[in-house]
Amino acid sequence: MTFRARHLLGIEHLAPDEIVTLLDLADTYVDLNRRTIKRTDALAGMTQINMFFEASTRTQSSFEIAGKRLGADVMNMSVAQSSVKKGETLIDTALTLNAMHPDLLVVRHQNSGAVALLAQKVNCAVLNAGDGKHEHPTQALLDALTIRRRKGRLQRLTVAICGDIAHSRVARSNLLLLGKMENRIRLIGPPTLMPSGVAEFGCEVYDDMKAGLAGADVVMMLRLQKERMDGGFIPSEREYFYRYGLDAEKLAYAKDDAIVMHPGPMNRGVEIDGTLADDINRSVIQEQVEMGVAVRMAAMDLLARNLKAERGRQAAGVMV
Ligand code: CP
What we know:
alpha/beta, four-stranded parallel β-sheet, 11 helices, 9 strands, 39% helix, 14% strand, globular, binds phosphoric acid mono(formamide)ester
C-alpha cells in the first residue's frame, strides 16, 4: 500500500497515489460497516483521543465510531469541562495528553494552522478534523469516496462548488483533492464570498449559478458560515437563496444525472432547498455521512500502520 504520511494534516500533503490507497481501503470499510458485526482489530491496544475545540456532530461522532470499530480505546476530551476553560493553552493541553501515550490524536480547532503546530509537539499521529478556514481533509476524502462510488471515477468530472467559498475549509480541501485528481472545478458564489487569488488553484470562477452549473456532474453546496463572518457579506438570507440557493430550477442547468452534495450542517432554505436536500434521486448527503465513517477508519488504519513501522524501526535502533 502506498501511504507515506505520518500525520493527516491536509490534502495539500497527499500525493494522488496516497489518496487512491486511502479510498480503496475505505471501500473495504464501507462493506464492513454494512455488516451486523462491524469490528476489526486494526487499532487493538491503541489509544485515540478526540479533542474538539469547535462544535461538531458528523466529524466527532464518526471519528469515535471509526476508532471503536477498529478496536481502539477512544477518549473524547470534553473541551468545555477541561482546563482549557482555566486558560491552559492548546500546546500545554496537547503536551499533557501526549504524556498519557496516545497513538492517535484527532483535533478540530478554530485557528488555521493550529493542528499542524500541535503535531510538532507530540509523539503520536495527528489527524486534522478541521482547522479554521484552512483544511478539513477527511471531509474532502469522504466527498471523493462518495463521488467515486456514484460516478465510477474521480477524474475528468466537472464539479461545481457553490456558496461561501471564502470561509470554507471544506472548499479548500476539495479544491486541492479534486485538482490533484484532474477534475474541472468551478467555484460559484457572490464576489463578497469569493477569496482573492482563488484562480491560482486552476479553477473557473462564476458569480451566476445557472452559468456555473451548466453541464456539471457534481454540485457541491456549502454552508453559509455565519460564525466566521464579521460583517455584511450578503444582503439577506432570502436574497441569497434567490441568487445562490440550490433548488430544482437551478439544478436543471447541471447534467441530468448530476449529484447534489452538502457537507452539513445545512441551512435549509438558505443555501439549499429542503425538498431537494431530501430527494434520494439527486441528493447524496446521507451517503456522505456514511462514507465519513469508512474514510476515517481508513485514515486511522493507515496512520497506525506507519506509526507501528516507525516504532519498530526505532526499537531496532534504525535511524528514521
Ligand atoms: N461536515 C462537518 O464537518 O460537520 P460537523 O461540523 O458536524 O462535524
